[in-house]
Every structure is written in C-alpha cells, then in structure tokens.
Amino acid sequence: MTHTIFIDGEAGTTGLEIRERLEARADLELILLGDRRRDVEARREALNAADAVILCLPDDAAREAVGLIENPAVRVIDASTAYRVDPAWAYGFPELAPGQRERIAVATRVSNPGCYPTGFLGLVAPLVRAGLIPADQPMTVNAVSGYSGGGKAMIAEFETEDAPAYRAYGLSLTHKHVPEMTRHAGLSRSVLFAPAVGAYRQGMLVEVPLHLSALPGSPSIEVIHGALVEAYAGQRFVEVAELEVTEAMTGLDPEGLTGTNRLRLHVFGDRGGEQVRLVALLDNLGKGASGAAVQNLNLMLGLDEGTALG
After folding, report:
1. Would you state the CATH architecture of domain 115-284?
2. Residues marked as catalytic
3. What are the residue ranges of CATH 3.40.50.720 in the chain?
4. How much is the mean pLDDT over the chain?
5. 308 phi-psi bin (left φ>0, alpha ψ -120 to 50, beta other)
6. Which partner for 145 in 109, 151, 204, 285 could form a disulfide, CB atoms 3.0-4.6 Å apart?
7. Whole-structure pTM over 0.90, yes or no?
C-alpha cells in the first residue's frame, strides 16, 4: 500500500531534511507543489488530499494550515511549537513514557518535539516519574546547538567569514521551549533554560546539572544512571552510555550523532560525590526534528518506526 504525504514548508531546513528521508521510499508518494507552494488554494487541495501531512512552518502558519484541513481522515504532524502543550495533540516523543508510542500510533494530530526539549526530557522525565526528582524541584538546563537550528537567517549569518564562534541567547529567560520542557517533564516550576549556538552546522549537547544531596534520599550516581537505563531498556533510538564509558571520557563532541535519529544520554560525575552532570547528545535536525517526524509518521501509518532512519 502506498501512502500519500504532503510536506507543507518543504523548502525550509527541516522540510528539506524530511523530504530527503522520504522521497526515495517506494511505500510513500510525495505531493509536491513546486512553484505553487505559496498558493493557498494549491496548499488547501494538497492538505486535504494527503493521507498524512507534515507541517514545517512558523507557528501562525501552522495554525493556518491546520485550519485549512477539512478532511477528517488526514493525519497531521506539526514541527512547530504551536501545539506542543495542547492536550488535544499527542506529543511526538515515542520513548518519553510508557504508552506514548501507542498514543502517537492512533493519533490524528501529533506535535513534533523541539530539539532542546528532546534532550532535556530524555534526561529528566524518567527521573521525575521515578520520584528521584520532585515535581517542584528548581531545574536548570544548559545547551548548545549547531546553527542550522536557527533557520535560514542564522545559517546565512554563521556561514560568513566574520561569523561569531559562539553565542548565548534566550537571555530574557522567556524562550518558547520552556512550557514544553516543564509540562512534559512533569515539573510544576518553570525550567531555567540557557541556550547557545556554536559555529558548526548541526548537532547538540543538552546538559542538566544535579546536586544529589538536594534530592530526596540523596540518590547516588548509580541510582540515577540505573533509572535511565531501566526507562530506555530495549529502545532502538535512545541509549544510555555505561558509567564505565563516561568515566573514561575527557570530552563530548556535539557533532557525534550528526545524521542519525539517535539520542545518547550520559551521567557524568564522581561515584562518591554529590553532583552529576546529565548530558544528552543528539542531532538537532535528526532526533531533534526531521528524524523524529519520520519516526512519528512511520508509527501513524502502521509501519516499522525505524524505516528510513539510522
């Protein structure tokens, strides 16, 4: 059976990555508008003719696109932030919690997670669920992404000769990812989010520091690590680095998983100490965007979720 797919916003960074992953597949047929991609009526027709639609648009444009869909059989994946905390939409992180994969598979509306939230939630949500981190715990997340996460304007800026080497941003502490991270981690206090961009194209590190002595029962590093291992046992795209591996590491390359749909979680620290650094490694355009969208699409179409993913 061939499924028809329409990518609304295929010319953007995420849209191009998704199209590249889908266009060679014999089980899918892409609806391509070419020069008509800005024609509202052409888009309306495509949005209602497809079996599944992937929206790679700014928030307001994504809401507009959803409003154009009248065919109840059309299934939608939205890559913007427009619906990420909307309870009517399934949150598209299959490994987030037990039953999440099944919710995505039966949903007609799925909101693709943000790249930074994917790393943060991968680290923190299982620990909150296990009671190791209280819901009201103040949480900080530091992160650095390749410049492709900022879209065409940032790509153009960082691919010039006088581009900065590194830049912190989100300095007003009102970044649009904060509600998403807070809600889906099960936290009651807003996360303090400190993002940055580096002078490389793609890949990211997301770090959450923890004072173990400030947590209930002062859990050990082994307990924290064990909870993550248990949460992701058997998962195809999420792995937890062994403590023996992290203890031998002297650095972590943010480009280490570029081109993949994988998420690797690390627990760094002295086994006898009272502090840990939880660090997630992923490709901001892979598991953080296009790869996640394709994984969700596969689930929604009843296909092997790893099809066309590495």
Report:
1. 2-Layer Sandwich (3.30)
2. 115
3. 3-112+288-300
4. 95
5. left
6. 204
7. yes
